[in-house]
Amino acid sequence: EKNGYDHFMLKEIYEQPDAITDTYRGRMLVDQGIVRMAGVDDNISKFLNARRILIVACGTSWHAGLVAEYIFEDFARIPVEVEYASEFRYRNPVIYRDDVVIAISQSGETADTMAAIKLAKEKGAFVFGVCNVVGSSISRETHAGAYTHAGPEIGVASTKAFTTQITVLSLIALKLAKEKGTISNSDFHLYLRELELIPNKIKEALQSNEHITDVARKYKDASNFLYLGRGFNFPVALEGALKLKEISYIHAEGYPAAEMKHGPIALIDEMMPVVVIATRKGHYEKVISNIQEIKSRKGKIIGIVTKGDKEVRELADYVIEVPETVEAFTPLLTTIPLQLLSYHIALMLDKNVDQPRNLAKSVTVE
Ligand code: F6R
Where this protein primarily resides, as one coarse class (predicted)? Predict the structure, then answer.
């Protein structure tokens, strides 16, 4: 059932190229320049007239929501707010009838997300689900939705669910952007073609596995890690830190790179590995100056860089390359080495990768 892999988590990491292909199959017709998704098409006026999009989710699904915020605002120019379902439900939130609420949940059973959906429905909003498990409670409670089609995710640490959630949300954003005319026709086609190339680029990113094992060996005994990213990759920094915490029990924090100087920089010394997402597109020069600040305080730098990068390589202790893509889709690639890094560290520390202590695959209690 693990298909020759030692753990479900590793299997699911390696399944991502196929999972993403399954997510967009039949929905994205690249040659015709069409994105079709029944749940969106049937409710297109609700999406096009949305005052805002509110995204509710927990954990890794919340991180996918944050990536989607950047993508929706950039492509479709719709204001987006991303909420922890557990906070949203108890905050007496402002919800308008012309808000579209998107609930993201791999399991489709998360209690807080379910409660947030019920609240949004009571207030008259249209609620759209992005779930993986077919027929799950959340998929039934929402007005419409789109499945991620990632296949069963068994490892407690979410991997392929995250990248397929981002894929579904990107498809929706592209469709709305096209309908609204907020991106040019040529950009629309470019993005479709780029999304189609992502599975092969993930395969390429997976080839760094051996090298990532060396990085893991070097830093597995650290007691803290910092993860930094900017723009579309800020949520990836949060997700990388969560993966490490969950399965290796090493304390890790994710931050927007520029926030470092407002506090976390005080933590940096020669004992602190800092994983910096520094792909060529997206605030590259600014991230380089962040890297210099870390280096001058003797922090250890693990750079996640675009293939062929030279500048970061000169400064960093290690670099891990990912193929080039458009900035908006870089999270689908930069996530991969962070998943592998946490996997290998947990394995070297002899932790139970697939079933970390204190965690359950679906959190059906609040
Ligand atoms: C992280 C993880 C959790 C879940 C969270 C939401 O690896 O597994 O943070 O992402 O419990 O679960 P779903 O997506 O099922 O609602």
Answer: cytoplasm
Question: Which of ligand 1's atoms lies nearest the C-alpha of 361?
Answer: 8
Active site residue 300: no
Lowest-pLDDT range of 25-39, 131-145, 277-291: 277-291
Confidence of residue 253 (pLDDT cuts 50, 70, 90): very high
Catalytic residue among 180, 281, 295, 361: 361
Atom of ligand 1 nearest to the CA of 363: 11
Helix, strand, coil percentages (3-state) for the chain, rounded to 5, are: 50, 15, 30
Q: Which two tokens stand for residue 353?
A: 């990768």
Ligand 1 mean position, distance from CA 22 (Å): 21
Amino acid at 43: N
Compute the distance between CA of residue 365 and CA of residue 135 in angstroms, rounded to an integer: 19
User: Whats the size of the chain, residue-wise?
Assistant: 366
CA of 345 to the centre of ligand 1 (A): 20
Residues 49-73 have pLDDT tens digits of 999 999 999 999 999 999 999 999 9
Distances (CA, A) of 208 to 283, 304, 356: 24, 11, 25
Is residue 182 a contact partner of residue 355, using CB atoms and an 8 Å limit? no
